[in-house]
Amino acid sequence: MSIAKPRLQDLSPDLQYQVWQRQQMSGRAFYLLLVPFVAYLAIPPVNAWVDSYIGVKRSVVIEDHRSLPGELPAALKSSPQKGAVIAGFTVTSPYGDRSDRAAYLPPGASLFHLGTDLATPIGTDVYAMGTTTVECWTDSGGGGLVAEVTSSDIPNYRFQLLHLADCFAGEHAPGDVIAQSGDSGIGAAHLDIRQEERVSGQKVPPYNGYIEWALTGKAPFGAPGLLVDKIKDSEGLSLAAYLDPVGIPTIGYGATTYPDGTPVRMGDRITQPEAEELLQWHMDKAAAQVEALVEVPLATHEKAALTDFTYNVGGDALAQSTLLQKLNQGHKEAAAKEFQRWVHGDGGKVLPGLETRRQENAKMFRGEL
Q1: Residue 210 CB partners (closer than 8 Å, separation 6+)
Q2: How many CB atoms lie within 10 A of CB 39?
């Protein structure tokens, strides 16, 4: 009596992983023998095969859509889709469902891609994201030379870089080259970036902000601590309510309302942890408003500049601004010049602090910071 083999897509994620792990141990050699047979296929399908079936250093689940809050504002926390361009490189295969490529996969192999593929030429530099530790190892299942990356600036996640030409193990300072993309393992030249939770080891969709950071060496202002620090420097901190330059009761790091919509009132007091929570909530809200209002593609630094601007003036002001109008018409330089109009306080007086902040907004928007 034989038992019909279940399809992975019909099982729960936990059972998918158990089946996938057993097949990885017993069937990998068999499937590697098929590589010459399928060599006539186009390279993208071959890469799809490999990236769905390569070995991994630690246990992971096949599908996990969870993410941890607080690392990036919404504008930088999304995962890129196929065809998106990040740091000049096109996404050829995003994280997620690959049922449309099932014909190219070995029977029972995962229909989920656990990383994001970018079309990087051999020798493309990959940079440290903050203070970074790199461990190098070889994946015999097809992933080739792999860099295992952790960063003290990104405490909740670790990363894997696959198919490398070079990997530089050890401790690295921010902006150091830690690896170079290649075509090691099976498949054409490309870089497969994977992101996972440090504690559980569960894969999550790689975030735009981290991918751009790794490929440019420049930390996005939305990266952990960076946009936060800029807003803190600009707003200052007060645990007691005060009147801002236009006469609005304000508290913490420039907050004028609480998450439930209640306005700040004179006489209010909060604690330092409450100020931090308010900052994060308003920053995420500002990022979401930028995403909702802007109709043209934005680079990470452009999103960060608009997030800081919206945090300061509010989503309604952005929605009604000529800055947004020009931006949505595709006139980015004209939009950048609009920041300088937002420098007035009560009575129309130009405020030096706002002048400085708008100059920084414009520079950030242009990628000059």
Answers
A1: 72, 129, 154, 157, 159, 193, 195, 223
A2: 9
- Name the amino acid, one letter, at 301: H
DSSP result, 225-278: THHHHHHHHHH--EEEEEE-TTS-EEEETTB-B-TTSPBP-TT-B--HHHHHHH
Spatial separation of the C-alpha atoms in residues 259 and 285, rounded to whole Å? 10
Which residues share a beta bridge with 90?
Answer: 85
The whole-number average pLDDT for the span 218-240 is 79
Beta strands (DSSP E) in the chain are 85-86, 89-93, 96-97, 112-113, 116-118, 125-127, 132-139, 144-151, 154-167, 170-172, 177-181, 191-197, 203-204, 238-243, 249-252
**Of 125, 183, 244, 291, which one is the catalytic site residue?**
244
Catalytic residue among 117, 139, 212, 235: 235
* Site of tokens 């590697």: 32
pLDDT tens track for 72-90: 555 566 788 889 889 899 9
In the annotation, is 346 catalytic? no
Where residue 71 falls among pLDDT bands split at 50, 70, 90? very low
Answer whether residue 110 shows pLDDT above 50: yes
Q: Are 11 and 19 in contact (CB under 8 A)?
A: yes
Clarify whether 171 is annotated catalytic: no
